[in-house]
Amino acid sequence: MHPVLFLILAALLIVSALCVVLQPSPVRSALSLVVTLFLMAVTFLLLDAQLVAALQVVVYAGAIVVLFLFVIMLLNLRDEPRALARLGTQATALVLGSLFLLALIRFLVTPPKLSASASAATGMATPVSADFGSAQVLAERLFTHYLLAFEVTSVLLLVAIIGAVVLAKRKLV
Q1: Relative to the CA of 49, which of 18, 132, 140, 168 has its CA 20 to 30 Å away?
Q2: In whole numbers, what is the pLDDT of the chain averaged over residues?
């Protein structure tokens, strides 16, 4: 992937991710999440990970965001008037945000230099195998090494749906 294209995609991803967090409306926030997930899929496509890009669109942008929107609509969330944050909270957020921005600028201007042993330890010097990212390798890894995490995630999503239904039912009664 060309570095300029990566920087453009990264900037768009950051903007859309900030929109997810900063949108006052939960529906607009969920739609910004869809944009973020599609941009991630484009990034995966440009990195020659077509399977991961397809899974990103189908699983996350399709199923998970539809689930989020279903829960938002079920809970009947409305825009509430924003409470004014206290001055201390605003000052703390400003200081922490400024420190993060300065650290990011410093990292972009002078990236850390890796020694030869450090780059070898991270695996950057080794070539990628031919079957890397294939559906068979991904499925084998997902259903053997990460089976517990996969099942816990599905149970958490089920509990979230049940919780949303219970909360919505209490409001109706």
Answers
A1: 18
A2: 75
